[in-house]
Amino acid sequence: MNQIKIGDTLIKDRGKPFIVAEAGVNYENDMDIAKKMVKEVAQAGADAIKFQTYKAETLAARDSPAYWETDKTQRDFFKLFDTFGEEEYIELAKEAERQGIYFMSTPFDLKSVDFLEPLMPVFKIASADITNLPFLRNIAQKNKPIFLSTGASTIGEIEYAISEIKKINEEIPIAPFHCILSYPTKREDANLRMIKHLKKVFPKHIIGYSDHTLPDKGMVTLVAAYLMGATILEKHFTLDKSLPGNDHYHAMDPKDLKLVVDNFDLLLKSLGKYEKEIIEAELPARKNARRSLVTSCSISKGKVITPENITTKRPGKGISPIYYDLIIGKKLLKDLSEDEILYWEYFFEK
Fold first, then answer.
1. Measured between alpha carbons, how far is 249 from 71 in angstroms, rounded to an integer?
2. pTM summary value
């Protein structure tokens, strides 16, 4: 069975999902808000909280055009959310440890990779960096599991990224994530069936899903992704979905996250065993709701059983109707009154 170990947690294919709340930069450069997010994620029952670590100058060229609704360049836009540095992320990692969840942050430059490495049990590589060869090689040298987002990528690009990482260390566990690089992702663009395709193409890997759709009322999109085959599930997280800014509008809030966790508690209890078999809870119904062959009138000893003098009724403790053809034409060894259940000893001597 495919599996990947994150810290002390063993993630198994078709096992308990590993849930990551993507705080990103929704803490608005405020440590108190960031710590509150960590606490809320832990209280909701998720496994990890993930931030994003970048500096605008190392992320985007000076005149890089934005491809979303803003009058700023990419560098100017990202400059609004890049005030946290190494000390702040160390503090957040300690807070996550105190709250009993894993700390993660997606690095976007080599310096961030280096100082984040001792703080995290796993690296997350953003979709946009799947072709960033020197970056992939640097992360691979850290010898930690990798969550690899695949938004806007071809299968060939995913295979290339995995192969380059494996050249550095063949033993590094890599989990490709289905992801649509569009914010928010329209429902008709989510294409959750692509998860099944990733499982087919990468059968030796645990598959994940990073969700950018607007939170639905029942938070069932992540459940559907799990049923498609994604065992690691990630979605943006905020304390307030009504806030303006970067990623609040398509993020889940604490109430949504708690619903996600509750959904999976219910789902995992319901999924149960893989192979079809009779379970103990069904045994009373099997015995009492199934039918037996029963006399439909009085029948004297020595008479032959015909379709006219038997029927089928509950309970199923006598001769099963499966043996109807075998009983027709058999002679009774005793007198029976109407509405008596038939047993084998009525026809065959011991």
1. 19
2. 0.90
